[in-house]
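User: Could you check the structure of this?
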Amino acid sequence: GLNVTVPYKQAVIQYLDRMTARASRIGAVNTIYLRDVEIVGDNTDAQGFIRDLQVNALLPQTGQVLVLGAGGAARGVSYALLESGLDIIILSRSPKAAQEIAVDMRALFPAREIITNALEALAKLESWSEIMLIVNATSAGMYPQIKNSPWPPGVPYPAGIPLYDLIYNPAETELMRFARTHQARAVNGLGMLIEQARLSFELWTGYFPPRNLLEQAIKAEFPV
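Assistant: Sure, the predicted C-alpha cells are below.
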C-alpha cells in the first residue's frame, strides 16, 4: 500500500479500480491498497484528523469551524467536522472549489450549516463569536515555501481562537507563529500525520501500531 499527499488526493481517483464508501463520501483518497486484484482507494485523513484533535483537546462540542482551503485535504477535514456535528465555513482562493465541497457535503449532512466564500472574505467576517477553531488545510507555508501564509495580509488574527495547521514541515508555520502572537494556541499536523498513518498501516497489514512508535520514527525524520 501507499499514501497519497497534496495535491494528488483527487487526481489519483481515476487510476483506482474502486473506492471505499468512506472515500467516496469524502471525495478524496489518501490511502491506496491492494485487495485481491483490485487497487482500492480509502481515506484515513478524516478519522486521523479527529483523533488528533481529541488528543490535543481541540475538538469543539458545538459551534463553527473555519476551514482554509478547498483541496483534497479540506474535503477530509470538512467531512470529519460535519460528521462530528459541527458547522463549517470554507474560505479558499478558489471559491468554486469551496462551493463544490459544500454541494457534496450538504447532500451528506443536510442538517449542518456550510458557508463558503473567497479567502479574502476573512476581512469581512462580522463576528468570530461562533468560531471555535481555525483549520489550515492549504499547503501555504509548507517547506520549502516556509515564509508563505494563507492568511491575507493586513487582516488581524482573532485573539484566542485556536489554530490547527495540517502542515508539519516546518514544525511552526508562519500562520502558527501569527496565531501565537494573538494569544491563540496553535498545533501543527504532525499528530494527524501519525494518526492517519496508524490507520493506513492497519489497512495494509492488519496491525494497528502504537502512537508512540510512530512518534519516535517521525520525529527522527522531522526533528523539532
